[in-house]
Amino acid sequence: MGVLLAASALAGLLIGSFLNVVVHRVPLGESVVRPASRCPGCGHEIRRRDNVPVLSWVVLRGRCRDCGEPISVRYPLVEVGTAGVFAALAWAVGPTAALPAYLYLGAIAVALALIDLDVHRLPDAIVKPSYLVALALLALASWGTGDWGAYVRALAGGAALWFLYQVTVIVKPGGMGYGDVKLAGVLGLYLGWWGWDALAVGAFGGFLIGGVVGLLVMLRGGSLKTKVPFGPSMLLGALLALFVAAPVADWYLTTTGIAPSA
Predict the structure, then answer these.
(1) Cβ distance 99 to 193 under 8 Å?
(2) Half-sphere exposure of 42 toward its Cβ, with a 13 Å CA cutoff?
(3) Do residues 142 and 155 lie in contact, with contact meaning Cβ atoms separated by under 8 Å?
(4) What's the pLDDT score for residue 115?
(5) Conformational region of residue 240, where left means phi above 0, alpha means psi within -120 to 50, and beta covers everything else
(6) For residue range 119-170, what is the model confidence (pLDDT) as tens digits?
(7) Strand pairing partners for 45?
(8) pLDDT value, residue 46
(9) I need a surface site. Which of 5, 98, 192, 206 has the fewest CB within 10 A?
(10) 197 Cβ contact list (under 8 Å, min separation 6)
C-alpha cells in the first residue's frame, strides 16, 4: 500500500502542475496544450527545469528566472494539494480497477473547485466530457471487479442526483447555476458506483457544506444576495462521502432505530 500511496502522490504532483494550466486557461477558452507556459511578466517560455512541481518554485524562490516577477504560491499549493487528494483516494480505493476512475474524479474536483472560486463558473469543457470519461472508467472498474451491479447503481445515482438538482433549480430559480446541475450528474455516477450510502451522504454533504459556507459569509458581512459558488461544496461533499459514508450511514440507522445497535 505504501508504494501505491507514494506513486499516487507523485502522479498528483505532476497532474497538479497541469491543473494549474487548466485552471488558468479553460475559463479563457484557451488551449491547455499550446502555447507552452510563459511568464506573464516578461513573456519568456518556462524552461523544463523550471517546471518541476514544487521543487522549481522553491529553487527559484517563487520568482521568474528571467525577470524576477513573483510566481504565486498558489501554483505549488495546487500541486501539493492534488498530491494529497490522489494519495487519499488511493488509500480509500486501494489497488483496484476503480482507482483510475476516482483519481480522475480527484483531478477534476481540484480544477473545477478552483475555477468556480475564481470565476463562479463550472466550464462545460471539463464537465461534459467527464460524463463520457466517468462512464468509461467506471465500466472498466466494474469489469475489473466483476461487480456490474455497481455500474447499474452508478447510472441510477447519476440520474437521481441530476434530477434532484434540476428540481432544485426549478423550485428555487437563481439559487444555483445550471453548471451545478450538470456537475451533479457526474458526481452521482461516482457516488452511485461507490454505494447508496455514499450517494445519500454525498448529496446531503454538499448542501450541508454549502449552508455552512453561506453562514460564514453572512457572519463576515455578506448577505443572502451574496454570490457564493456552490461547486466546491458539492465536490468536497462527494469526496468526503467516499471516506465517511459507511460510518455515517451506520450511525444514522442506529440512531433512528432503523438498524439495531451492535
Answers:
(1) no
(2) 12
(3) no
(4) 97
(5) alpha
(6) 999 999 999 999 999 999 999 999 999 999 999 999 999 999 999 999 998 8
(7) 38
(8) 79
(9) 5
(10) 245, 246, 248, 249
| pLDDT tens for each residue of 163-193 | 999 999 888 877 788 899 999 999 999 999 9
d(CA 71, CA 69): 6
φ/ψ of 38, rounded to 5, equals -130, 155
Question: Using one digit for the tens of pLDDT, what is the confidence trace for 23-54?
Answer: 999 999 988 888 877 777 676 777 777 688 88
pTM over 0.85: yes
3-state secondary structure the chain: CHHHHHHHHHHHHHHHHHHHHHHHHHHHCCCCCCCCCECCCCCCECCHHHCCCCHHHHHCCCECCCCCCECCCHHHHHHHHHHHHHHHHHHHHCCCCCHHHHHHHHHHHHHHHHHHHHHCCCCHHHHHHHHHHHHHHHHHHHHHHCCHHHHHHHHHHHHHHHHHHHHHHHHCCCCCCHHHHHHHHHHHHHHHHHCHHHHHHHHHHHHHHHHHHHHHHHHCCCCCCCCCCCHHHHHHHHHHHHHHHHHHHHHHHHHCCCCCCC
Cell numbers linked to 179: 453548471
* Residue type present at position 121: R
Domain boundaries, the chain: 1-95, 96-262
- Cell output for 13: 504532483
